[in-house]
Design a protein that fits this description.
Helices cover 36% and strands 21% of the residues. It has 10 helices and 12 strands. The longest helix has 15 residues. Bound molecules: NADPH dihydro-nicotinamide-adenine-dinucleotide phosphate.
Length: 264
């Protein structure tokens, strides 16, 4: 097997990555297999990569920071974001990349003329998304329920929800897990409704369900998108790294196969 790949995380049973990648491997008739691996101890990440004989891996919660830490080569974007979701192993060296950020930008490509964005949540995903928006010249404000994680966002405007004033943000992004397993909103409905009145677009990182955040934004007539395209595009970019596809000639076939995989 030339390309043995895996997604590694805790928990991992829900991950759609094996389906997406294996379907693309088959569609493109490549020599590869993509597995899932449940890792419990972050200190075993490096030894696991080598003992499984992996050529590449996607690293998911809660090991993305550790993935960057163990790498011998760190891509500039991963380094700036502070975490990696894609590792390549070549000649016993680990190369770390972050495709969540570029996956997100690709997903919001049809959102036009964004000058100011409000990021709700201050975890790992917020770090990646705030960095990418900032790189695009978009002014970013980060808001979170608690102060602690906001310390990472000193270079941006940042507030806890109780101190956030209602201003005009073109795009509101929910990066929190509020609404994932429950029916909660990331912040008070009253505040969100006021913010929606002045916004045009909403993006939800969660996919596969209409969260209360998305419902509220839709009711308030914002153009909305969930995290499915971000999931797809981070997968496409990771796949291209695994198989060293440098140009865009295979993008359409990869995304078609990955989209199909999400239907069954
Ligand atoms: P983290 O644990 O790093 O951060 C979670 C953030 O959400 C924190 O700021 C936390 O606030 C906040 N939060 C959690 N629960 C609530 C709640 N009930 N109300 C308000 N705020 C809350 O997680 P990640 O950033 O890594 O991941 C966040 C989400 O993004 C997950 O649902 C994940 O599945 C999704 N995701 C989707 C991707 C895609 O491809 N579509 C890719 C990557 C992630 P506090 O600091 O106060 O605890």
């Amino acid at each position: 097997m030339k390309h043995l790949l895996a997604v590694i995380g805790d928990p991992i049973v829900h991950s759609k990555s094996p389906r997406m990648h294996n379907n693309a491997i088959q569609a493109l008739k490549l020599d590869g297999l993509y597995l899932r691996y449940h890792l419990r101890d972050k200190n075993e990440l490096k030894s696991t990569l080598f003992s499984l004989g992996l050529r590449g891996a996607n690293i998911t919660l809660p090991f993305k920071e550790q993935a960057l830490k163990i790498a011998d080569f760190k891509d500039e974007m991963a380094l700036k974001i502070g975490s990696a979701n894609t590792l390549i192993i070549k000649e016993k060296q680990i190369y770390a990349y972050n495709t969540d950020g570029i996956g997100f930008l690709k997903a919001i490509e049809n959102f036009i003329n964004i000058k100011k964005a409000l990021v709700l949540g201050a975890g790992g995903t917020a770090k990646a998304l705030a960095f990418m928006l900032d790189q695009k010249g978009i002014k970013v404000c980060v808001a979170n329920r608690s102060q602690e994680k906001l310390l990472h966002f000193q270079n941006y405007e940042n507030y806890t929800y109780d101190k956030l004033s209602v201003q005009e943000y073109d795009l509101i992004i929910n990066t929190t897990s509020a609404g994932l397993k429950d029916e909660s909103l990331p912040c008070e409905a009253k505040l969100l409704k006021e913010l929606c009145k002045k916004a045009r677009y909403a993006f939800e990182v969660i996919y596969g369900k209409e969260t209360p955040f998305l419902q509220l934004c839709k009711q308030n007539k914002l153009e909305c998108k969930d995290g499915l395209d971000m999931l797809l595009w981070q997968g496409v970019f990771a796949f291209k790294l695994f198989f060293e596809f440098k140009d865009e000639s295979k993008d359409l076939s990869i995304i078609k196969a990955m989209k199909e995989a999400l239907l069954f």
